[in-house]
Design a protein that fits this description.
Layout lengths: L1 E6 L4 H11 L4 E7 L8 H4 L11 E2 L3 H5 L4 E4 L5 H5 L2 H6 L1 E4 L9 H8 L13 E2 L2 H9 L5 E3 L3 H15 L3 E12 L14 H4 L4 E2 L8 H12 L6 E6 L6 E9 L5 H12 L5 E3 L17 E8 L4 E8 L3 H16 L10
Parallel strand pairs: 1-2, 1-4, 2-3, 4-5, 5-7, 6-7, 8-10, 12-13
Antiparallel strand pairs: 8-11, 9-10, 11-14, 13-14
Helix pairs in contact: 1-12, 7-12, 8-10
GO cellular component, one term: cytoplasm
EC number: 1.2.1.38
Organism: Baileyella intestinalis
């Protein structure tokens, strides 16, 4: 039995972590970190966990928490985890960071897109990007101390495009990605633009040309393609609680067939429990992945334009955040990867 602490336990991703970990047979939740709700019973905030989670929130520091737990999940805003991390903490515990602090290897790129300094650049090289279906062996490697849990748009985009990029089936210079997200992706803090009356019966684009997940998508797909990648990425906010649907488009290399595309997906994901490859022409739907750690991937070759349409759907709070974090934890500690996550 391992002991876990969650910092940011009262946010949407943090609450999803609590729900998953409270049912995990090999985990005991020790601390529920929240400065805003310090001393408040957790189940009074999330009534669905009454009788399941009987702990109070605490404003305990990361250093104090690290002294007694095996793993800390940081479901916090950008900058927090890196500002707290030091050698003493990492000698005592493992960190799974759900923010962007360790996702980008270049601190200058991080500053450019997030507008703040990367507070712990000395740990960037050792942090492992926690996209399990791609980096499983790196995550499992003995001695790993920091996992950079991928973002929600990035998880869906990278997994959807990766096989075709890695197999050289598409011209990556033509890649365009659109992403639609439910409102929970914007976080739990009160913002006028996220109020019900502001988002209901409306769809809007945002972060045009500046969305912070763009460099993360580019960096990871660059590893797949074996060269730098530049992506046009546009996110949209849609009036639903949770879920992400991405549509990616790229020109196919000459003589690439639908069977070639299908074979690429099967090669990379044929044995993956949390990836479902749909028949050509069938579109994923967010309702079919809601509350699961699954990603559904579909594709369609368009012979008229010689382009491929790639589609992916995930639950942004599970596969896009908490579920993937638990998947990473399972790999780190040698548990079956699906523990606590299978439906």
């Amino acid at each position: 039995m391992i002991k876990a602490g969650i910092i940011g336990a009262t946010g949407y991703a943090g609450a999803e972590l609590v729900r998953i970990l409270s049912a995990h047979p090999d985990v005991q939740i020790e601390y529920l970190g929240s400065r805003s709700f310090d001393g408040i019973e957790y189940s009074s905030i999330f009534g669905d966990l009454k009788g399941v989670v009987n702990k109070k929130c605490t404003a305990m520091s990361m250093k104090e928490m690290a002294a007694t737990v095996d793993v800390i999940f940081t479901a916090t805003p950008q900058g927090f985890c890196a500002s707290q991390l030091d050698d003493e903490i990492l000698q005592n515990t493992k960190i799974i960071d759900l923010s962007a602090d360790f996702r980008l290897k270049d601190p200058d790129v991080y500053k450019q897109w997030y507008g703040i300094e990367q507070g712990a650049p000395e740990y960037l090289d050792e942090a492992v990007y926690g996209l399990c279906e791609i980096n499983r062996e790196k995550i499992k490697k003995p001695g790993v101390r920091i996992i950079a849990n991928p973002g929600c748009f990035t998880t869906c985009s990278i997994l959807t495009v990766w096989p075709l990029a890695a197999e050289g089936l598409v011209n990556m210079d033509t890649l365009v990605i659109d992403g639609k997200s439910g409102v929970s992706g914007a976080g739990r803090s009160g913002k006028v633009q996220n109020l019900f009356c502001e988002v209901n019966e409306s769809v809007k684009g945002y972060g045009l040309g500046t969305h912070r997940h763009t460099p993360e998508i580019e960096e990871q797909l660059g590893y797949a393609a074996g060269k730098p990648v530049t992506v046009s990425f546009t996110p949209y906010l849609v009036p639903m609680e949770r879920g992400i649907l991405i549509s990616a488009y790229a020109s196919l290399k000459p003589d690439v067939s639908s069977e070639d595309i299908k074979s690429a997906y099967e090669k990379y994901y044929g044995n993956e429990e949390f990836v479902r490859i749909l028949p050509e022409g069938q579109s994923p739907e967010t309702r079919w992945v809601k509350n699961t750690n699954m990603i559904d991937i579909g594709f369609k070759k368009d012979p008229r334009t010689n382009r491929v349409i790639m589609l992916g759907a995930i639950d942004n709070l599970v596969k896009g955040a908490a579920g993937q974090a638990v998947q990473n934890m399972n790999l780190l500690f040698g548990f079956p990867e699906n523990t606590g996550l299978s439906n």
